[in-house]
Amino acid sequence: MKPSRSKLSSTVLCVLLQLCSLQLLVVAMPTCRLLEDVVLNTHHLLRDLGGAFPVQCLKYNINISFPDSAFPASTANHPQCRQALWVVYETLRETQLLFEDFELPVGEGGVSWDRKKLSSFQNLQDRLLEEGSCLSTNKTPDVLSPYFSNVTAVVQQQGSAACGWMALRRDVLWVLKTALREHHSCFTRRGRH
Ligand SMILES: *[C@@H]1O[C@H](CO)[C@@H](O)[C@H](O)[C@H]1NC(C)=O
Ligand SMILES: *[C@@H]1O[C@H](CO)[C@@H](O)[C@H](O)[C@H]1NC(C)=O
């Protein structure tokens, strides 16, 4: 039995509609990727915008100690990769919030970072947060929030603010470096999606 012409065209239409809605779905879905070279540049800008961690800030290590265990032990599978990328995403997101909520202390005993590099760093940070936006829906408990509450407490107080920012920078650098070194297979490389 040959299908009638009208039946055939309605089948074609149906397939086309399904393809279209699939495409819409893909377009509407927030992206979940972090580009490796953008993360690398972000790391380099943060590394180069200021000097080494000051000795006089060491005493705040009790207050500010990044939970290393937030990273998965290995990245052999998809959930572990997602966790590793989430640590990067969430660290950058909380850092962006701190920059929005508090001014960097200037003047003597303040933070003397290269403003141009800082602003380039923040631009890349914004881009990573946009491109990785779907990572925000992580199902594991938020292991980073006690850390960021502590950073906020130290950054909030006048006497310790500069050290709070220095410690934050040290830890964000550690997060980016660790992710790039130990979980590099989780990142997206340009030209090979
Ligand atoms: C937060 O600060 C308290 C001391 O005020 C410290 O005992 C705790 O380990 C800190 N936690 C983190 C994640 O830095
Ligand atoms: C650091 O933590 C101690 C408790 O371990 C607390 O008394 C102190 O206020 C904290 N310092 C800052 C600047 O938050």
Helix content range of the residues, please?
Answer: 55-70%
Radius of gyration: 22 Å
What is the domain total for the residues? 2
Query: Quick one: biggest sheet?
Result: none
| Beta-strand residue fraction | under 5%
- Global outline: elongated
In the CATH hierarchy, the third-tier topology of the largest domain is known as Growth Hormone, Chain: A
Spans with pLDDT under 50 lasting ≥5 residues? none
| Helix and strand composition category | mainly alpha
- What CATH architecture of the largest domain do you see? Up-down Bundle
Small molecules bound: 2-acetamido-2-deoxy-beta-D-glucopyranose
What is the overall pLDDT average? 87
Say what oligomer this is.
single chain
> Under the CATH scheme, which class of the largest domain?
Mainly Alpha
Count of individual beta strands: 0
Helices and strands, in order, run as HHHHHH
Number of helices: 6
> What distance lies between the first and last C-alpha atoms, to the nearest angstrom?
45 Å
Family: Belongs to the alpha/beta interferon family.
GO molecular function, one term: cytokine activity
Signal peptide: 1-28
Subcellular location: Secreted
